[in-house]
Amino acid sequence: MRALLAAFLAAAAWALAACTPAAPPAPAPAIWRVSDADSEIWLFGSVHLLPPELDWRSAEVEAAFNAADEFVTETDTGPEAAASFAALAQRYGRLLAGETLADRIGAEETARLARVATGLGIDPAALSVERPWLVALQLSYSYAVRAGQSPDHGVDTVLAGDARRQGKRLTFFETPEQQIRVLADLPRDAEAHFLSLTMDQVEAGDDEMEVMDRAWVSGDTATLDRLLAAEWRESGDAVHEALILRRNRSWAENIEQRLDGSGRIFITVGAAHLLGDGSVVALLRERGVRVDGP
Fold it and tell me: Residue 274 contacts by C-beta under 8 Å, 6 or more apart in sequence?
């Protein structure tokens, strides 16, 4: 599922008016401010893959980021950590010897996967020894890239590069292994369902994706919340708990602890973690922490 994997894969798709290309609206993605007497923490919803032409850097985001001393992401974005993801994917994403993906998802879903994978330029045979969660990631990533998205232009990547150039301290909530195991530790039935929903979205096309894209870049949190809530209902409790809710609780506690210190911090995590019931924002407010924003 697209929203489960990358929060939102923003695209530059804007309506035409009177047969004349309309200028895209000024970017205004949602941002939240958490503060006390000596601390200021900004929360910004990340989009992990973006087209190079999409302008998302509002004046508010720029000011908050430039003022921060520390930049926090979901996981380590350094080159060594990035290189470790491939090894971790092999370690946790390969099936046991003698087992095939068809054993996990059945003949009908295996036939559907062959059609979907082929349509994305992926050899279905190469997926036959991989676990459903890893196959789902590959399908989602390939689908996004074919639609013009790029990780090089995602919020995390762009801001991490800027943070290094500005000499900010870079920290993260999860190690690469912890992040991989969010999916690798799913129950078998939830993992197979996760792959099935990913194929549903690839087959359905881009209509909902474009609605999400426009909502994200314009800061329309009501629309995003409504669309995400529907996706979590489809995904089931196990997937929602593992990918979003459990991590939100951990991150909210971490942020509250950071308020005991001082300084300016800019945090960017997947936008889905900041919206709706059980979000990081909602949890902080329930704890009595002041959070200014939508």
Answer: 30, 32, 43, 45, 280, 281
Q: How confident is the model at residue 125 (pLDDT cuts 50, 70, 90)?
A: very high
The DSSP output letter for 242 is: I
- pLDDT tens readout for residues 37-54: 899 999 999 888 888 888
Mean local confidence (pLDDT), 65-80: 91
Contacts of 80 (CB under 8 A, 6+ apart): none
- Say if CB 2 and CB 9 are below 8 A apart: yes
**Site of tokens 């922490």:** 289
Paired residues of 138 in beta bridges: none
Residue 148: phi, psi to the nearest 5? 100, 10
CA dihedral angle for residue 204, residue 205, residue 211, residue 217, rounded to 10 degrees: 130
The answer to whether residues 280 and 43 touch, using CB atoms and an 8 Å cutoff, is yes
Q: What is the pLDDT of residue 76?
A: 86
Q: If 0-12 CB within 10 Å is exposed, 13-18 middle and 19+ buried, where does residue 125 land? A: exposed
Q: What is the DSSP letter of 25?
A: P
Going by C-beta distance under 8 Å and a sequence separation of 6 or more, which residues neighbour residue 181?
Answer: 92
Measured CA to CA, the distance from residue 68 to residue 114 in angstroms comes to: 47
pLDDT given at position 70? 97
9 pLDDT higher than 50: no
**What b-and-e string marks burial along 259-282, b requiring 16 or more CB atoms within 10 Å of the CB?**
beeeebbbbbbbbbbbbbebbbbb
Average pLDDT score over residue span 76-82: 79
The structure tokens listed for 276 are 């709706």
Going from N- to C-terminal start, the domains of the chain cover 2-8+27-292
Question: Contact at 8 Å (CB) between 40 and 33?
Answer: yes
